[in-house]
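agent> Task received from the user: take the single chain below, predict its 3D structure, and emit structure tokens. No templates, no multimer pairing.
agent> Plan: (1) validate residues, (2) run structure prediction, (3) serialize to tokens, (4) report one or two observations.
agent> Step 1 OK, no nonstandard residues flagged.
tool_call: predict_structure(input=
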Amino acid sequence: MSKVLVISTSLRAKSNSDILAARLVEGAKDAGHEVEHISLKGKTIKFCIGCMACQKTQKCVQKDDAIEIAEKVKNADTLVFTTPIYYYEMSGQMKTLLDRMNPLYTADYRFRHVYMLSTAAEDEETTPEKAVNGLQGWVDCFENATLEESCFCGGISEFGEAAGKEAELEEAYLFGKSLK
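)
tool_result: status=success, residues=180
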């Protein structure tokens, strides 16, 4: 089975996307995958400064938590990003992290399958489209990788509300079981 890395990008403690991510992790483990789940909470991730030194060295000149996360991303078979949807887009910290994965562009990265799990107060089918498109843009830069699928659980706004949403918890679990 695959080595799966789940990256939770919400900075809110016990967030709805974290609750759903935990169920996704359970599903992935039950499917036989080796799963590591990391959170951006408490991590220092600076903005990319665009110096492009990483294109020659595969290392960022900045010293922060993004370096260790990039190494984990590089060595995973499957990536899952979980994010709350803010203003119809991925969280800012997720976008900042994606920008900081620039050293991987010229590296011998292992990941081939990328997924996204998102949640929002809004419940329209189109709510996650811009976030999915943003992640697709990142994946498009890695010719050996594919954005496989996205799972959106909308209509969840109150703190910790996802814990009581049985249908969404089951959807996240089955999403985790379906990972490649």
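agent> Step 4: summary for the user.
Strands lie at 3-8, 34-39, 78-84, 113-120, 146-154.
agent> Done.
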